[in-house]
Every structure is written in C-alpha cells, then in structure tokens.
Please model this.
Amino acid sequence: MKRYGSVIGLRPEQMAEYIRVHAAVWPEVLAQIKRSNITNYSIYLRQPENLMFAYFEYVGTDYEADMAKMAEDEKTKEWWALCMPMQKPLDTRAEGEWWASTEEVFHMD
Model:
C-alpha cells in the first residue's frame, strides 16, 4: 500500500457547489475509484484559503495502469468535467499535474 496526498485550490464562487456535489458523489465514480485500487480516500477543505487536500491509499500493483483506466472511464470523465472548472490548480504544480503532489514527511500507524 502506498499513501498519496495532493493539493489544489478551489474557486471561492464555486465552494458551495463543490461541497454539494461531493456530498453525493455519483455511484459509478465511486465504483471506478474502487476498481482503480484506491481506498481510504478523503478530501479536506481549508478556509479561508480555499485550499483542498486529498489523501488516498493505493493498494494495487500498477498505479499508472490503474490511473489510465480511470481516466478512460466515461462517467469519471463526466465527473471531472463537472468538478475541474470549480478547481484552481496551483501555479507551482509539476507539468502534467492537476492536483499538485505532496511529499510525506511523517507517518505513524
């Protein structure tokens, strides 16, 4: 199992809508997340900065392949098309990233 953390901004005028849609994530999207070997997935919001932090655990053996399958899923594409305009990626993210990856500096079980 590998832990992942990432951050992204949230457009202030979209905050209520983003929270609303995440209160009822589409079942097909949740199923695809599970098929992609992602567990223990959470998204946190820090206000007033409008900064979101996502955490999940990957339990598969081929992360790149699982993420590629997720990106090909039609319902997931629809979900991303709904959510991405509400997000504000960090200017400092790496090339090719939407959510900026973070480095784990401490963990305790």
In short: The beta strands are 2-10, 38-46, 51-58, 87-88, 100-101.
